[in-house]
């Protein structure tokens, strides 16, 4: 088990290096001068030579490629992600301020999705019949709901019409914990609904698959009650594929926050990303992308480790 | 076969299939079916609700929402289909090669290319591409195609691994079939079912992603109508004229749902193992 | 419909009495019966074998006893356990019976054990399901149970997961679970089918030993008449969901009354019957296949070392000769077949095919091998491409090697070949799923014959088939061999098949040749201990002879 965990972490570190390389190459392999590209507004209007020279200097584009690569890697690994084009702020500082807010949102949404999705899917598989059919329809709709549409509908219903919850914004926990929590509810629900549907579907099909395994019959042949068989054998074994789904889902959620933060005007990491993409503030975009990718890889390592804990066959 | 078909086609899925058919018609014949020019402004009827003159109402510039939705569908589907084709071809080849040859080929295709691409949440990588290239249809198709390729690659890879062990594949080798025949003549036809299912699901995901990008103003460039940007516009009139948001929003949801359901139908129609999936 | 031949019910009260039990699958208004009015009984201490080929309904009947059927099945009739009716009994009562009065062991111990729990966990679960025992006590008892089933190192094995044990050890663990509450009846559903013959003998010995100690009854479900002869007191023969005959074992083997039983027994190849191959061997000329000091390795990968699957192999096949390659799983017998077919490279030594040294494995070497050697595969379910018609499959080798190109020529050649293997010519356009296992295997043979090979590699071509089908396929095989005179490398785990078919035998163990020689010589007077053990472990379908062989084996 110990060596399995170490191996997974090793693979993760390798993956992060590859990811960083890809991001580095993304800037340099795109046809055309990156500085020109970043300054053009997509309308073909060319930038002034002074502006191009400034961007080249800021991105270190005049250095040899290998030197740039080395500076990029060492910078990324030590947390030095450069400065914003727009306001000269340290990218790492900006990320440090925004990241916790996004994580809070993603964490809450994941919690909702798992707490709702797993029992829901298990129940649908166990009960069958009309409950299963209704579940099937609801989860199909759930996965089809874009967060920005569903989020808008939530705002329309719960804040504009019913006036129950704020339509967006942000409040520091230290300043107004009550409002802080209230603000989180709608975006978290908007994020969670699709995720919960995916988790429910996965749980359902995993449970159905496990129900037909030979060892379930063995457990019954020992005289275990249906409940014990379901809980200790079927559900227990269904967890493995569900854990994988949740891992992938959290990653997708990290992406979806981009939309949800816009809908609810929530000043998280993702809205920083969108602002920067719109303003073509490349250092910030790059920094945020690196942060999210590293987060995603870490989540995957965690999932793999959990997988090893749950299924002895994989931890060789 | 007939029983499997009957099982695959629940009433809901038939409706979804019909909807997808309608979408294809719209894609081919938008100018013919659209009631008016999507850019024509009827200033006298700004923000009109659904009615006789404008079936689904107008937006803040008095443009006919139904026409905009129809033209939006065209762009939406074109990008989604384009990205899906790119993803399918790229991913299937990667998975086929990685699964069949194993060893260093597998490391390069599945570990380096696929795992690295999967280390990003989908939308993030597209945003990176948009930052560098600027928004636009071509960028979107290529970026999303590359992005969705890993899913196809993983499916193809897993299928190849299990099909490779079957004796008829070994028989093809034993009886002297050239590598190309083994890959594309023997293995590919036997792994195609889940890939076809994935095509439908990927179209749904692509629409989800593209409409999201357009919502952020980073997808299709205005004034070309797109569902995402229509939703974004509508947000400003959410409290007074919610139909401006709800109409395009509903179409996004319905279209994604329809392609998802068609995917489910294909799965139970093509893959006898998934009898339990509805 | 002929009446089943039934003996009179035994005078003593039976422990288990099944009367007119039918099992139906379906749901709602549509139910389809898969077994019809099955009647049988098991006396205390008795071993009853329920025999039949695939689809006979034997397993379904056994699973009906404790209602371990899938959710879409229902049972009707009467099942009396010690006089108590189990059909219609509540789930609660059934639970008390399961694992306590009646225990079950299954065919595939790999899938019958939950992969995420240790052997110890399984045993504790079994022990505590009917007894109010503390966890610590149950753990002590678990080790004790493993010791009783002769599990090596029981103290460490309790901590192992199913995938860490060998097939035989897993089945021992399964038996230990079944014995946890000393049941009165043990239902064994094909308990040794997935195991090697020497392991099978050990497991059957174990069951017999436990039975003698506890006095339990055993209902064993099997398709293997050798196993029946080895263990059964009484035999119930099933076919198409019905009992066709039921008799004491000795009587059934000596005087089978129902024609199906007669046919079944006639189809079983028996070791020691002295049936010899009629192949005409030409030893004068160059052998078709010659291996000299050959080693075979499976290539490793970037994180896994290579694996040597064969070493120091000296084997030759003369023109017209049928060489039987015999061994248990992991002996390397299939590996040698794949080597001869050019699917694996020679790691060491020299290989000659039809007069040409092909050790180098160059493109030209492989082309030569493919022209001279052909192969029949093991699993009729997967050896044909499900997406191609059988006509296409049969002539694919010819198209791939460029012998035939036109579709028309391929089609008529396919028809000829189908005719050769006694299948209707107009089946060329059928797909594999429309054919039975035996028919598919005929198609496999036709495909192998397409290139008119000098050497045919047959990798366990009948092991997945029922005995009656196996007999027909083997007959066809011998006929074709006599007609066309090809040489053959016949890979099998079944010594009786070798005896019937092969002119000479190569016995393999762990990738090395243990013994080789003419079939008669090796089987009648084996020189090596391993060969002797292999022969002794193979059960023969004759209760008296088998009892004698068992006594000899246990004494030796």
UniProtKB/TrEMBL annotation, chain A:
Recorded superkingdom: Bacteria
Protein keywords: Cell membrane, Membrane, Transmembrane, Transmembrane helix, Transport
Gene3D superfamilies: MetI-like (1.10.3720.10)
Membrane topology label: Multi-pass membrane protein
Domain ABC transmembrane type-1: residue ranges: 99-307
Subcellular location: Cell membrane
Transmembrane spans: 9-30, 105-125, 137-160, 180-200, 239-264, 284-310
CDD domains according to UniProt: TM_PBP2
Family recorded in the similarity comment: Belongs to the binding-protein-dependent transport system permease family.
Name listed for the protein in its UniProt record: ABC transporter permease
Organism: Nocardioides imazamoxiresistens
Lineage summary: Bacteria, Bacillati, Actinomycetota, Actinomycetes, Propionibacteriales
UniProtKB/TrEMBL annotation, chain B:
Keywords associated with the record: Cell membrane, Membrane, Transmembrane, Transmembrane helix, Transport
Residues that span the membrane, as ranges: 12-33, 77-100, 112-132, 138-157, 183-209, 245-266
PROSITE patterns: ABC_TM1
Name under which the protein is recorded: ABC transporter permease
Gene3D superfamilies from the UniProt entry: MetI-like
Protein family per UniProt: Belongs to the binding-protein-dependent transport system permease family.
Source organism (scientific name): Nocardioides imazamoxiresistens
Pfam families, per database record: BPD_transp_1
ABC transmembrane type-1 domain ranges (all copies): 73-263
Topological type in the membrane: Multi-pass membrane protein
Compartment(s): Cell membrane
InterPro entries: BP-dependent_transpt_permease (IPR050366), MetI-like (IPR000515), MetI-like_sf (IPR035906)
UniProtKB/TrEMBL annotation, chain C:
Gene3D superfamilies hit by this protein: P-loop containing nucleotide triphosphate hydrolases
Cell division is among the record's keywords: no
Keyword Ubl conjugation applies: no
UniProt xrefs under PANTHER family: DIPEPTIDE TRANSPORT ATP-BINDING PROTEIN DPPD, OLIGOPEPTIDE TRANSPORT ATP-BINDING PROTEIN APPD
Source species taxonomy: Bacteria, Bacillati, Actinomycetota, Actinomycetes, Propionibacteriales
Stated name of the protein: ABC transporter ATP-binding protein
GO molecular function: ATP binding
Record keywords: ATP-binding, Cell membrane, Membrane, Nucleotide-binding, Transport
